[in-house]
Design goal:
The chain is of the alpha+beta class. The chain contains 2 helices and 5 strands, in the order H-E-E-E-E-E-H. The protein has a domain of 62 residues.
Length: 96
């Protein structure tokens, strides 16, 4: 299936807008949790909401999470502030 055909097929049989998940981005780092929610309009994507929650020192040690509760609390606070209730997730692994 060619890419052009696949894109036409996806456009022709796209789910209704009310079923589509919002476009969101989540970044978890040693300094905090940052989230953005994008909206799709006639002119393309625009920033709809954003939030940032700082993490206290000691949540990470040598790149490992040692305080899961702090991460979960920050993630829940940031997503709530940005109006994100669901997301598709892709994770990258930096350790080999």
């Amino acid at each position: 299936m060619s890419l052009a055909f696949g894109e036409r097929l996806r456009a022709a049989f796209a789910p209704p807008r009310y079923l589509a998940l919002p476009l969101s981005g989540i970044d978890i780092s040693t300094s905090g949790v940052k989230v953005v929610r994008l909206s799709e309009g006639v002119r393309g994507l625009t920033l709809a909401q954003h939030a940032q929650v700082r993490l206290p020192l000691g949540v990470f040690t040598d790149g490992e999470i040692v305080d899961r509760a702090a991460i979960m609390g920050a993630l829940m606070a940031a997503t709530r502030a940005a109006g994100i209730s669901a997301a598709n997730v892709a994770l990258s692994e930096s350790k080999a």
